[in-house]
Amino acid sequence: MSTLSHWSIFSTLQQKLFTKLKKSRSLVRRLVEYWPKKELPLLTPPSKQSDDHLRFQNPKEALLSWNCKQTQWWYFTGHLKDTSGRRFGFEVTFFERRTNWDYIVFFPSHIVRPRLFVAHFAISDFEHKDEAKRFRYWDRGGYLENTGFASDEVFHVEVGGWSAFKHKAGDIHVNAAAEDNSLALTFQPIKELVYHCDGGYSQRSSDPEIASYYCAHTRLKTEGRIVVDGKVFEVEGLSWMDHEKMQADTTRFENGWIWYSIQLDSGDDLMMYFLKDKQGKVDPVFSAGTWVSKAGEITHIIFDDVERQILSHWTSPASGGKYPVHSKLAIQKLDLELEVIPLLNQSELDITRSSFVAYWEGAMEIKGTLAGKAVTGQGYLELVGYDTRRGSKLLHFLFAPEPHRLG
């Protein structure tokens, strides 16, 4: 029998096993509904707790974590240049998730990790001589190597030695390192903190409990250094930071999303997200965005304001995901038309080992018109929910060797 036939039989057995385990998990979930809930320890002293929405609207506390929320993340992306003009892109993301309603197949996750920390770090070196090294990524944390911390008193998060924190002077510092590659960057806000949707409150479903609190620094002056293959580059440029806190035990995020962060050379910024439903289609009700003018004035955007056209896809040889990486956006009320072009098609992070997911996170070039005048810019595009693997993903999570990370 050929190797291909052996693999086909093995894949079929994987699918059957995964289906049975999934049914078992559903049964366990129903039974657990009758068990007493285990309350997680408070991270914030009761005297310092306050109404979530009001606390979030306070700019001095908007980037702090708070008690008893299921998921939150701190998210940095940016475009940088060294003194010779060599261009780089980067992503550093930190996640904290409370696992009281998560399962590894049918096993309650909170027994293993009551709080789960994960971090991702990627460098795009657009001019690297080795094409295979133009995009590289690493991850930390997860169920198998969980070392993390998030403060409730100050903006400070750490996962596996990588960190992000806000200095008393107001600047933000991010550090991450893996093998002979690292970055150490300092960010200075150019604009005020932006609160997306309704004063930071972002509804994600007809269920009012499924929502998030969402703020961002859409334009950060950035300085520091990047190390690629042991070579040090002093860099500067522009970055973006998102901070989001999920209110519900389960969220619409499980179906995936499309997220744009765009910084135009005119000084204007655009954030737009399209949530996907269970069928993989864009949800027109709970997709939204924010336009931040050069002066800092905010215009909220709804789904009906935007025309989105897919121009081309890239299919991952690893996950099978077919990603819509090249697109156009048109927003008539802003007199805005933009083409969003990937600088590297291969920008997929397969972090199944730590996060049980693969997603596409790529640096983008922006071309278009604003009020009839030509405009250019830069940005990042995130595509989640395109990984087509099912049962094989579980085996990858359990048995994949450490070199699954690129680099």
Notable features of this structure?
13-stranded antiparallel beta sheet, single chain, mainly beta, disordered C terminus, 10-stranded antiparallel beta sheet, 4 helices, AttH-like fold
What is the element string, with H for helices and E for strands? Answer: HHEEEEEEEEEEEEEEEEEEEEEEEHEEH
CATH-assigned homologous superfamily:
AttH-like domain
Coarse shape: globular
Proportion of residues in extended strands: over 45%
Supply the number of helical segments.
4
CATH architecture: Beta Barrel
Classify the helix fraction into a percent range.
10-25%
Report the radius of gyration as a whole number of Å: 21 Å
Quote the CATH topology: AttH-like fold
Describe the main β-sheet briefly: 13 strands, antiparallel
Secondary structure tally: strands: 25
Low-pLDDT residue spans? 1-11, 37-50, 391-407
Class per helix and strand makeup: mainly beta
Termini gap: 36 Å
Indicate the CATH class.
Mainly Beta
Structure write-up:
There is one protein chain. This protein has 407 residues and is mostly beta strands. The chain has a single domain (49-404), classed as AttH-like domain (AttH-like fold, Beta Barrel), CATH 2.40.370. Helix content is 12%, strand content 47%. The chain has 4 helices and 25 strands. The protein has helices at residues 3-32, 52-57, 352-355, 391-399; strands spanning 71-82, 87-98, 103-104, 107-108, 115-125, 135-141, 148-150, 156-159, 162-166, 172-178, 181-189, 194-195, 201-203, 211-228, 231-246, 257-264, 269-275, 288-292, 298-302, 306-315, 322-331, 336-342, 348-350, 358-370, 373-384. Strands 1, 2, 5, 6, 7, 8, 9, 10, 11, 12, 13, 14 and 15 form a 13-stranded antiparallel β-sheet that branches. Strands 16, 17, 18, 19, 20, 21, 22, 23, 24 and 25 form a 10-stranded antiparallel β-sheet that branches. A two-stranded antiparallel sheet has the order 3-4. A hairpin with a 2-residue loop joins strand 8 (156-159) and strand 9 (162-166). Helix 1 (3-32) packs across helix 4 (391-399). The protein starts with a helix and ends in an 8-residue tail after the last helix. Residues 1-11, 37-50 and 391-407 have low confidence and may be disordered.
